[in-house]
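Bug report (template v2)

What were you trying to do?
Predict the complex of my protein with NAP.

What happened?
Run completed; filing so the output is reviewed.

Input:
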Amino acid sequence: MPSIVITGASRGIGKGLAEAYAGEGWDVIATARSDGDLAMLSAIDGVEAHRLDVTDEASRSAFVDAVGDRPVDVLLNNAGILDGGPPSVEAWQRSFLVNTIAPTLLSQALADNVAASERKVIALMSSKVGSIDDNSGGGIVMYRSSKTAANMAFKCLEIELAPRGISTVILHPGWVQTEMGGENALIDVATSVAGLRERIAETSSDNSGRFVTYDGQPIAW
Ligand SMILES: NC(=O)c1ccc[n+]([C@@H]2O[C@H](COP(=O)([O-])OP(=O)(O)OC[C@H]3O[C@@H](n4cnc5c(N)ncnc54)[C@H](OP(=O)(O)O)[C@@H]3O)[C@@H](O)[C@H]2O)c1
């Protein structure tokens, strides 16, 4: 069976993805930060749970060691934060650390595992609000700019990793009813997850590097 690594699987979209892939028999390596969330994930048939704080270099390194030399068909960088407070140096740096720097470094660290797999896909859970073209309203500047920068970092990864047969996809999950999305969001986790899985499944060297919504609409950068 194919394997997938999903970061930030304690709740929301990450948890929904872990459940869906495990339900179809994939080998799921899902990450969380708290003991309770790790126990919850471990109780799902087909899920191997690992502790990972993406901002902590030692934690990332221990996680990469735990994955070892296993092939990873899909690496899904899902963990993210939305800090909508007033911008400050500390908060802005944290947004970049979680949303931009960590997924890029983790993808580089696990590139050998992805290259050794059959499907060879690295995905980033970005957001449409990271699109400069789409920004007519402003606001949430720390979140927006960290996602924009993540998009650029993954564009670089696409070019860097193509010679190794790795394809990338940059995803917008929709406005989803999660802790981050809030209860007024337009779609539920199941709808987002179903679309995201289709986008990941269709990712190949022919369309590598797309910035696309869960339901397949291309997003202008
Ligand atoms: N919901 C939406 O409408 C929406 C729209 C566009 C994009 N997105 C993106 O989709 C992704 C998932 O969002 P969501 O709505 O499911 O959010 P969520 O419910 O807030 O879940 C966020 C996940 O990220 C994890 N996380 C946060 N900081 C972390 C860290 N330092 N290390 C490891 N894990 C960390 C959280 O773990 P803990 O439980 O340990 O905090 C949690 O599992 C994010 O990248 C988000 O930006 C969401």
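What did the reviewer find?
The helical segments are 12-23, 35-42, 57-67, 89-109, 111-115, 141-161, 189-201. The longest helix spans residues 89-109.
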